# Entry
Amino acid sequence: MTFAQDTKNKGLRLCYAIIMAAMAIISEPACAQDYPSRPIRMLVGASPGGTTDIVARLVAHELEKRLNQPVAVENRPGAGGNLALNAVVGAAPDGYTLGMAYSGLAINPAVMKKMPFDTLNDLAPVSLVATVDMFLLVNPSLGVDTVQDLVDAAKTHPEKITLAANALGSVSHLSAALLKLRTGMESPIAVYKGSAPALIDLMAGNISAMFDTVPGALNYVKQGRLKVIASGGAHRLSIAPDVPTLEESGLEDFRIGSWYGLVAPAGTPAEVTNTLSSVIIDVLSAPQIKQQLMEQMLNPKGTTPAEFKSFISTEMKQWEKVAKDAHITIR
# Structure
């Protein structure tokens, strides 16, 4: 091969590389503009029938109607939601694999020694879908009416007051730990495998108090089997207007709750995440959808990807400090 031929071949290869790169740049927005052109799957890190699953199926159904493509919900419970979300991380960043995340997404990095992915860098937030408030519950026979009453009882008779958590490293667990940190209570925290057994023991008087979501505890409260002494939101709940918030109870900057939101693999085109976010905001503004969520005691939200990312980051910082100060670790 002559020098001239070699130079010509190199020039052709360079031209080909430039053309292919240009085509890739042009094709990505074009693909995003055609989105979606085929079925979508939504991975859920929780079992069927739970609140996370209910939210996911509601969102999937509404996305199907508005995007004119099937949205299949796949339940992959395990590892605090990490099993499903790790599959999302490993999927192609094209908007055809989504994940319905919940509060564990922000808590797991704080309590788990080993995470299979980087929460903020390996996932693309799409939209916060809904939040759910927390109750601070006690057994009625305990004889306390306020948070201060509970704190005083714990300090006067520490051997008689036991807090409970519905799962290791959950919002319920870290909220109980935060209450101890902020009040100086020395009460032990009994960690259960689910809300149901914890609530049963609370009603039986085997434990004294616990944080749990409003949907999980409301029926027992209505039956008089449990008593609410505070709620964890910024405002009192319309269903319990006489119950003060934790902040009104003297705990400054003490807001706790669970949440659910949609995520995609990192690198998903902004056109796609913005499209999904816009559709979800539209869905959650529909009166009938709002009503369905509120019947489940859920607060409809709907945010931009940037707003949801900021929300996750704030949650991570809050729980990281609690987990570190309370020495909560999951191996």
User: Anything to note?
Assistant: The longest helix spans residues 3-33.
